[in-house]
């Protein structure tokens, strides 16, 4: 971890990025009651991940997309 921290410090901020992308309602043809039918909107980062991001100076980029088809 120390080598990674040294590298990201040399490269500067914004070089390392943890990207999280989530798509909701991607499969409209699923049957009701499917495990994918729930809206699990919450998530968290545990202390180990937060410490890693802080130690490496990494950015966190989160994208969430609602893929529900519009009736237009």
Structure, explained:
This protein has 72 residues and is α+β, with helices and mostly antiparallel strands. The chain has 2 helices and 2 strands. Helix 2 links the parallel strand 1 and strand 2. The chain has one domain (2-66). A two-stranded parallel sheet has the order 1-2. The mean pLDDT is 75.
What features would you highlight for this structure?
72 residues, alpha+beta, two-stranded parallel sheet, 2 helices, elongated
Tell me the number of structural domains: 1
Strand content: 15-25%
Task: Kindly provide the radius of gyration, computed on alpha-carbon positions and rounded to a whole number of angstroms.
Answer: 18 Å
Query: Helix segment count?
Result: 2
The chain-level structural class is alpha+beta
SSE order and pairing:
Blueprint lengths: L1 H10 L5 E8 L22 H10 L2 E8 L6
Task: Kindly summarize this structure in a few lines.
The protein is of the alpha+beta class and 72 residues long. It has 2 helices and 2 strands; from the N terminus they run αβαβ.
């Amino acid at each position: 971890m120390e080598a990674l921290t040294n590298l990201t410090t040399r490269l500067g901020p914004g070089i390392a990025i943890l990207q999280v992308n989530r798509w909701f309602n991607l499969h409209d043809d699923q049957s009701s009651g499917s495990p994918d039918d729930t809206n699990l909107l919450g998530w968290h980062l545990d202390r180990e991940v937060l410490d890693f991001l802080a130690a490496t100076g990494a950015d966190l980029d989160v994208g969430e997309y609602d893929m529900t088809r519009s009736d237009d």
